[in-house]
Amino acid sequence: MISVRIIWRHAYELAHYAIISMEISFSNKKLQKLCEDHNKLKAKYGALQARRIIRRINELQAAANLHDISQLPQARLHSLTGDRKGQFAVDILHPYRIILLPLDGDTADLRTIQVVEIVSIIDYH
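Predicted structure:
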């Protein structure tokens, strides 16, 4: 009987935790449709690149904020400069990157950024 009470208490406590994940939007409908269709991604970028794009988007959706993404070495989150100042990029498969625009928070504190817009998937080099 004791174990049942303990399990119930833990389930009750877990039910009160809010699941926080980043909110992701796209700069245009064409990009959104491309990113939501594995076959279209595969046709445009190839099978391996398509899987990596989907993986990065899933990582963004699973993260609570941009700081969480910065802790993933394979994503290599980095801020951009020049005409892309204020934007960030995450690596996919060289040379492509997903360009992100923070829509909230402070770019100096990645923990405050919880809403991003995917601007493009490009090779900007």
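Summary: Strands lie at 23-26, 78-79, 88-91, 97-102, 115-122.
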